Amino acid sequence: MMSTSPPPHDRDHAIKQPNSNHCFVCGLENGNGLGMMFYEQGPGSVMATYEVPDHFQGYPGVVHGGIVAAMLDEVAGRAAMVGKHDHFRYTVKLEIKYRQPTPTGTPLKVHGWVEKERGSRAIAKAELRLEDGTLLAQAEALLADLPGNIREDQLAALGWRVYPD
What we know:
This protein is mainly beta and 165 residues long. The protein has one domain (11-158): Hotdog Thioesterase (Thiol Ester Dehydrase, Chain A). Helix content is 13%, strand content 37%. The protein is built from two helices and nine strands. It has helices spanning 65-79, 152-158; strands at residues 15-16, 39-42, 45-51, 57-59, 62-63, 89-98, 107-118, 121-130, 135-145. Strands 1-2-3-7-8-9-6 form a seven-stranded antiparallel β-sheet, with helices on one face. Strands 4-5 form a two-stranded antiparallel sheet. A hairpin with a 2-residue loop joins strand 7 (107-118) and strand 8. The longest helix is centred in the middle third of the chain and has 15 residues, at 65-79. The protein is globular. The relative contact order is 0.22.
């Protein structure tokens, strides 16, 4: 069951997370991607605001469900990275409940938070809402540590760093 709501968004007191060059969701040099930026809201909590352009629609004026899934997956994974930006995890399982169609061209808030962490695994939850708080979609993700460590040269090749707003 996907239950509780996360703490409120507060971008003014947030810590910006790194972006990469080519990631579909956060890649700032990926002309085909979303280019989203994420902000830490406190322990195990991350948020982003975003307006999905029309070219990511599934139906006229409605965001494709795969784009919604990508946004929820990314924010859930990033919640498990708070304070440890070189600790990458992959999604083992992602359960999504689409509550309402997500409109294109409308400011959205996506928020993720860690529910539980144990060893190499974490459970994170995520929500996508309109600015007025209307719930559009929610997710629960099971995340696991990537095998091995990502080296500094690999992080540099990703372009993994905090970029200015």
